Amino acid sequence: MTTQRSQLFDTLKSEKFDLLVIGGGITGAGIALDAASRGMKTALIEKNDFASGTSSKSTKLIHGGLRYLKQFEVGLVREVGKERAIVHRLAPHLVKAEKMLLPIYKNGTYGMLGTSVGLWVYDKLAGVTGEDSRRMLSREKTLAEEPLLKTPDLLGGGLYAEYRTDDARLTLSVIKAAISYHAVCLNYLKCLSFEYRNGKISSANCRNEITGENLSVTADFIVSAAGPWVDEIRKADHSLEGKHLFLSKGSHIVVARERLPLKHSVYFDLPDGRMMFGIPRHRTTYLGTTDTPFDGDTDHVFADAADVDYLLAGTNNMFPGVNLNRQDVESTWAGLRPLIHEEGKSAGEMSRKDEIFESESGLISIAGGKLTGYRKMAERIVDLVSERSVKLGGRDFGKCRTDEIPLSGDSLRNAKEVAVFQKEIQSKVREMNLPAHYPAYLVETYGEPARQIIRKAFAYELPAEQAILRAELSYCFAREMVLFPDDFLERRTGRLYFDIGSIDRHLDFILLEFRNYFNWSTEKLSAEKQRMETLLQNVRNF
Ligand code: FAD
After folding, report:
1. Percent of the chain beyond pLDDT 90?
2. Which atom of ligand 1 is nearest to the CA of 336?
3. Per residue in 172-230, pLDDT tens?
């Protein structure tokens, strides 16, 4: 990946694009890959870091959304259900099959028969067959699968197939794939306003958020995939009318695995009738989510004490033996669902379907939807752009082919190959004396480049954790457009959430690596240290 920002800026300034995408979350990334792989000359701009919006704050499941079936959103469940297997095939190191346990209680959300039928339909819609098909479990078998569950009124359970991912890394993998098809993708470049020719949108006025320089990007078509900021962009286009966004905040908490040693991911009832997930991940278990209306600052969204207490109470209610408290919470995150407002419905009742808006000026906006459905959302948008292009006498860009573009490079082609590779990494990690979660962490985070990262780490004469950090940083500086410590610690590696202790132990070391690479002044170093310390406080001092 070329990371020569100045070269990329020159290209953006001097060339005209077929398509400009605003927003580097999963939706924008998916559109950029789809468009570039069909031969569109494509640019993507992101005002912050890639995936810094909702796409690093989800529950990190590639799932069909069982609860949408209850709301009779059959089309949505069918589409995203089928997408799970495709995204798993495209990125087997990053999208891992994960059995989900749904315990069933007397007077709970789902009864035994309803769950059996519901999960059967869920599997059918998604085309799940064979060993992966849902299994209904007796009370005893449910407790054998998950001994920490509360026992009174437990009737049994359903065990069904889902997938777990790292949303920010998935987004970045899609961006990297788009770049391999010559899309020009830049982070820290904000769209401020638009220019028009004959009443039609023709370019975006942007600001380089690092240098303050302004520039204009010209394109035949402009698509806004700005997630929770979609209405802001529509406002800049003077086209915010009719349907609008409704933002709902969802928070998660992270505890050490030994404090809640779940054997499975569990989808369980809350006392207020909602449901939440408990998901084991490497050295932690994470729990979420809340669903509350949000009208605060969209650029600063964190879990608060009420969110944390709600999630702790729900967890303790279902797993009464563990008695989690605030001190157990190592980290948190919160994100905004950009839902399409529906009069008279609560946040939980509003549809998760995506919607496309076209303004008179030609600005195309897309909002709503799921991480899981990003490929199909992208296909709809790029089909639309291609159709508009033909209407205007331009090129037909053909059909979507992103279901054949691997996101793992060519080397790790399926879950079996990933497992063999993880064994290889495991033996190296053992030699280095790194903590036990590192093989899974390195393989799921980087895929095949984990090999070169380990090899580099071996060559450094440093304590093991610092050696691996230096090797990771070296890879991320060169290949992943990392500019700030939080790009690396939050979105490239997830350490902020799942291994926050490693930041506490090595923050000064990491900051010095940044200083050496970017030639930071002492003032810049201390400003970045302050910024990281504030972020650390925000995720754990609720
Ligand atoms: P975003 O990721 O928010 O991306 C929009 C981007 O646009 C941002 O990065 C922003 O910085 C950028 N931007 C904004 N304004 C500008 C501008 N002026 N110039 C340039 N760039 C700009 N889905 C699932 O499939 N599975 C799940 O488990 C799941 N769990 C969820 C849990 C929660 C709590 C939430 C909130 C959502 C969850 N979702 C899940 C939904 C999923 O996360 C979202 O649908 C998806 O991430 C939205 O991606 P996006 O690209 O549309 O928006």
Report:
1. 84
2. 36
3. 999 999 999 999 999 999 999 999 999 999 999 999 999 999 999 999 999 999 999 99
Which residues is 293 bridged to in the sheet? 248
Closest residue by CA, ligand 1 atom 9: 53
509/490 Cα distance (integer angstroms) = 16
Q: Is 22 in the pocket of ligand 1 (CB under 6 A)?
A: yes
Asked if the model's pLDDT at residue 115 lies above 70, the reply is yes
Predicted pLDDT at 129: 80
Please tell me if the CB atom of residue 46 comes closer than 6 angstroms to any atom of ligand 1.
yes
d(CA 163, CA 66) in angstroms, rounded, equals 13
List of residues 6+ apart from 512 with CB closer than 8 A: 525
Predicted confidence (pLDDT) at residue 1 exceeds the cutoff of 70: no
- Give how far the C-alpha of residue 211 lies from the chain's centroid of Cα atoms, to the nearest Å: 28
- Please state, in angstroms and rounded to a whole number, the distance separating the CA atoms of residues 33 and 19: 11
Bridging pattern class, strands 265-269 and 96-105:
parallel
Dihedral sign for Cα atoms in the order 280, 286, 291, 294: negative
DSSP string for 364-385: EEEE---STTHHHHHHHHHHHH
Amino acid, single-letter form, for residue 277: F
339 vs 351: CA distance, rounded Å? 7
- In angstroms, the Cα distances linking 413 to 59, 62, 80, 94, 172 are 25, 18, 22, 12, 19
pLDDT in tens, 217-250: 999 999 999 999 999 999 999 999 888 899 999 9
Distance 398 CA to ligand 1 centre (A): 27
Which ligand 1 atom sits closest to the C-alpha of 48? 11
